Amino acid sequence: MALLLGACATTSQPGGSLYRQFGENEGLTALVDDLLARFADDPRIAPKFANTNIPRFRRLFVEHLCKVLDGPCTYTGDDMREVHTGLDISEAQFNAVVEHLIDAMQARGIPRTAQNRLIARLAPMRKDIIYR
Ligand code: HEM
């Protein structure tokens, strides 16, 4: 019975629960650090960040993920279309970033269902990011 009630509590706050499954702010920061290391090692991605203030990007990326996961954050960056305009990001580069994200989530032991929910929320942003 306690288990059932627990399940109810979770479904009534699905977003909060998703943010928790990513380890809240600490987990998201670790995930983004892992991701940044993967970007730096990938010649398809790294050149795009040549002129980027990485500490700022790191902070904004954590905020953005937190918001997408319905966590208690305010995203203080610009909208996705504006940010990626002029970067001329290809579909292959977008897919490479998503693959790194999946590998990083896997490496951090994030449950597969939570991984899929994040990817499903990011996928619609694709049109604002590629070929801008
Ligand atoms: C769903 C996928 C993506 C999300 C959610 C995302 C999110 C973000 C966020 C939150 C920022 C910071 C916003 C700001 O500066 O105000 C940012 C900046 C940036 N993103 Fe993305 N991004 C995605 C895909 C990509 C891809 C595929 C690339 C390139 C391969 C890329 C390259 C960049 C670069 C270079 C910046 C920094 C721009 C600058 O220096 O001003 N992003 N992105």
Could you explain how this protein is built, in words?
The protein is built from eight helices and no strands. The chain is mostly helical. 67% of the residues lie in helices and 0% in strands. Helix 3 packs across helix 4 and helix 3 crosses helix 6 (91-107). The chain has one domain: Globin-like, CATH 1.10.490.10. Protoporphyrin IX containing FE is lined by residues 45, 48-49, 51-52, 57, 60-61, 64, 77-78, 83-84, 87, 89, 93-94, 97, 122, 125, 129.
- Report the C-alpha radius of gyration, rounded: 16 Å
CATH architecture: Orthogonal Bundle
Number of domain modules: 1
Number of contiguous helices: 8
CATH class, please? Mainly Alpha
Low-pLDDT stretches are 4-16
Percentage beta strand: under 5%
Secondary-structure-derived class = mainly alpha
Distance between the termini: 52 Å
Ligands in the structure? Answer: protoporphyrin IX containing FE
Largest sheet: none
According to CATH, the homologous superfamily is Globins
Net shape: globular
* CATH-defined topology: Globin-like
Helix content: 55-70%
Mean pLDDT: 91
> What's the total number of strands?
0
Order of helices and strands: HHHHHHHH
